[in-house]
Amino acid sequence: MANEWDVSGNAAASRTFDGPTGWRKFYNNHRDVIIAAIILGPMLFWWMVVSGFPTAFGFLLGFFKWGEITASPKFVWFDNYIHFFRDPQYYMALWRSIWIGLLVTGLNMLIGFLIALLMNLSLFGKAIYRTMWYVPVVTSVVATTQIFNIFLDINNGVIDNLIKRLGYEPILWQYSVGWGVFWIVVYSLWKGVGGMALLWLAGLQAVDPILYEAAEIDGANRLQKFWNVTLPGIKPIATYAIITGLIGAVQIYEQVMFITLGGPYGQTEVLVFRILRDGFFDFNMGMAGASSVVLFAVVFIFTVFYFRMFASDNEKSDPRRGRRKRQ
């Protein structure tokens, strides 16, 4: 019986791939998988080479003490992580990254939403306004931060020269913790609010106008239409904007590098800037890898928490979800 089954199985397999007809039938049965492999295969390979391998290597670096490129790495288990949470330079940089990221994301979304509401109106030349708001997004960080430095320089800065002419003492914009963080936040908003506004605008224009007409027939005022029609309609865009905005805001470092250089005394350092210093200036590859893993864990936990909260909110708002089948 076993031999008969094997023979019949081999015969069936040979009939499946026998000639062009067999391959055509196989292609028709697995068409979606084949097309997906052709389209996604090169991209997945590129991701593995450019992002996947460096990410895995960064995870491994966190378990080694590697002071110089030419030196041999030493396996130290969790010593780098213990040092991270004992050294104020590291955990304060992490805390600074979190609260600056939350502040920038919140203000970015609020200001971007207000700008999107204005751009959604029927205004003359609104295409020009949209372009003007988006220009900072595509400009060079190095060039624009240098323009900021021209304004903030204590000796020849535009703002301090104006203050001197008014008879007041110049302000140490880049050498004060409070003012340094203030200008980092201001630059981050100036750089990112245009992109956030276009995201909100896409969400506003995706809301079906029929819903507004139906709400108006029901006697809803502007606030009720905004609360019951606009906000639910832009909720998917809001989710994307919050996640991507926070990930980008937590990873800022160009602003710190070119405006304050982490000063004074490292009190405006954020974690990504600290990782950059450890990896490329101090050649402390182990701490750079461990810090990267901690930052990844924080962003991952927040993302999972937000998606869980968003999914549970959807289940509450949709009575068809989460309903158990009756036995």
Automatic annotation (TrEMBL):
The chain crosses the membrane at residues 33-64, 98-121, 133-152, 172-190, 240-265, 285-307. GO terms for cellular component: plasma membrane. It holds the Pfam family BPD_transp_1. Belongs to the binding-protein-dependent transport system permease family. The keyword Glycoprotein does not apply. The keyword Nucleotide-binding does not apply. This is Sugar ABC transporter permease. PROSITE patterns: ABC_TM1. It is a multi-pass membrane protein. It is found in: Cell membrane. Residues 94-306 form the ABC transmembrane type-1 domain. One of its GO terms (biological process) is transmembrane transport. InterPro entries: ABC_transporter_permease (IPR051393), MetI-like (IPR000515), MetI-like_sf (IPR035906). Keywords: Cell membrane, Membrane, Transmembrane, Transmembrane helix, Transport.
